[in-house]
Amino acid sequence: MKLTNFGESYEMNSPSMVINLLPVPGAEWAGKVSIVCRESGLEAELRYHQRRTFFFGFGSTPGVIKGRIFHSKSLTTIYEIDGRWNKKVTIKDVHSGEVRVLYDAVENISRLKTPVVRNPHAVAVTESAAVWGKVSGEILRRNWGGAAKLKAAVEERERGKAATRTTWEPQFFHLRPKKEGGWSCRPKLAAVPAAPITADL
Fold first, then answer.
1. Is the pLDDT of residue 137 over 80?
2. What is the architecture of the domain spanning 1-108?
3. Using 50, 70 and 90 to split pLDDT, how confident is the model at 24?
């Protein structure tokens, strides 16, 4: 991701969504996330801890996330991150000891509004809403078995497409390999055309 206004680019991955059926049905994020900003020389490591469930549905705390922000060259930690991604996440300055709220899920989610499909005919088959819509619907209905089956079907279908895909060119961005490795991504237009799905802020 490139923030042209700040002259910074970020390379990152994402956690995996895990759907559990037994002993307690549910969905959660799990895995390790790395975020690198070469311009600032800073990196972040985040670990989404998967809940461990024991007898009668009791187990560890769900939604736990831990991590740190550090200098890429010295590996010196400057901030520690701790909390629950579905509740509240704090960040601690390791030098001063100051702790502040980095993310408050309740506060942020309460302000979200349901996305609106402005133009159903303009929704591409590759839109996230189209690809994962049925999975999301089953999760909202708390049908974990159905969600797991649909998720597996989507992943299998996408793997098949990836195996036969030769080249891919983004519609709104120029994507070019960099000499030092990685990719350079720049917008083709001054402004991206109106999206068929919008969410009012």
1. yes
2. Beta Barrel (2.40)
3. low
